[in-house]
Amino acid sequence: MQSLLLLPGNSIRNKEWLSCMRNAFENDFHVSAIAYDHWTTLDQMDFSAEVEKIKNLNTRFDIVVAKSAGVALALLAVSKRYIQPEKMILLGTPLTAMLSDAEGAKLLHENMVPTVYIQQSHDPYCPFTEAKNTLEKLLKENDLLIKVEGNDHSYNTPLEIKPFLH
What we know:
The structure is a single chain. By secondary structure, the protein is α/β, with parallel strands linked by helices. About 40% of the residues lie in helices and about 20% in strands. It has a six-stranded parallel β-sheet, with helices on both faces. α3 (about 45-55) packs across α4 (about 70-80) and α4 (about 70-80) packs across α6. The termini are close together.
């Protein structure tokens, strides 16, 4: 059975997303997930601490499914070689924020893992059209950009992800 790592978005509301995704995939995958420390402290996300938690899982993940801030965390873990998945599925990638930061831009440019980017048509953090214009320059041969309808940045529909897991 393949292993799957779930990396949620920044907000504490993503506990629901984590539960939804875990329930949807736990019969088909060995599922691991990160719950962020700042969800209990209500501070800002500490990417250094969270990426160390991924390292300490000491597991080989075949697939990473990450949402929003989890995308940046996944790319950081890959760049540090803490994980080397066969594939990533990135939901609601916050391209505007990542590209405005030198390290975020570097992580996007250097990603060599085959990646499926799933972006809502009217995602408030980066609508599909903006993502398409930006990612056209970054997509590698085995990457895909998928448009799904939506405007709430929730990505709570595992059915949109399942076709890309195998």
